Amino acid sequence: MRSFYEVSSNILYNYIHSICNFLSVAQKINTRHFPTNFKFGVANAATQIEGGWDEDGKGETIWDHFAHYHPEKISDGSSPDVACDSYHKYKEDVALVKAMGLDYYRLSIAWSRILPTGYTNQVNQAGVDYYNKVFAELKANGIEPMVTLFHWDLPQPLEDELGGWLNIETANLFAEYAKLYYELFGDVVKIWLTINEPKQVCQLGYGTGGFAPGVVSNGVGEYVCAYNVILAHAKAYHIYDDDFRATQGGRVSMVIDTTWYEPGSESEEDKEASERILQFSVSYIHVDLKFVLSIRVIG
């Protein structure tokens, strides 16, 4: 099965523009059958849409590296180099979101656009300025931002120097990174998502090798990764809870995905089989999450 990263982002962008242009001419999304407090939104990921992969001081990510050095692993040979060019066209993107009548715009902040090396001792002001412009544009159009701190685009130096999510130190660095972003953008951003789909990060990035950074570990690496990723989430959560929630009034969560399975029949054997695959699909993330959040993590 092809991943959405393996689909040409330019084709996807043109498709979205066609839909949104139609909506802007015809009508906004019909929300009258939903409760008045039900909010609609759209989501993206920095690597999928931004482009400008090395502009204005941005550092290399594992997806930049993966696409440049292993293009054969991406079915159509596309890369994050230009993508949807949202780095230059963010005003057009926001206009499309407004035309659709949406309430929220969920975007991810590229770790390496603000911290080119992955470490907080080198802050790229051009990256800070870019996201402030995006948030200002959203505010001007009455759209609330939701921000994902990590949508799979680990800075390449952390992969080279530490082994990425196979090293617990990456969780500590993520906590420092999250704290910086709360400080930079917390007055505007009130909904934070720490990690997007940790199962995909770990199974495909550090298990089968199908996603960046392409590590093949025969299953061992994905469990190490899972622990460190969930620990990173817990650290970031507690930092916000301890130091920022009272003054900023925001919320912090994460994005957990799963494939759902149903038994092929009413037989006990099929029921047990579907339950078993569900456990293998989601439980290693959930077990780590329950364990890590049950301890007091000092950021």
From TrEMBL:
<keyword id="KW-0378">Hydrolase</keyword>
<comment type="similarity">
    <text>Belongs to the glycosyl hydrolase 1 family.</text>
</comment>
<keyword id="KW-0326">Glycosidase</keyword>
<dbReference type="InterPro" id="IPR017853">
    <property type="entry name" value="GH"/>
</dbReference>
<dbReference type="InterPro" id="IPR001360">
    <property type="entry name" value="Glyco_hydro_1"/>
</dbReference>
<dbReference type="Pfam" id="PF00232">
    <property type="entry name" value="Glyco_hydro_1"/>
</dbReference>
<dbReference type="GO" id="GO:0008422">
    <property type="term" value="F:beta-glucosidase activity"/>
</dbReference>
<dbReference type="GO" id="GO:0005975">
    <property type="term" value="P:carbohydrate metabolic process"/>
</dbReference>
<protein>
    <recommendedName>
        <fullName>Myrosinase 1</fullName>
    </recommendedName>
</protein>
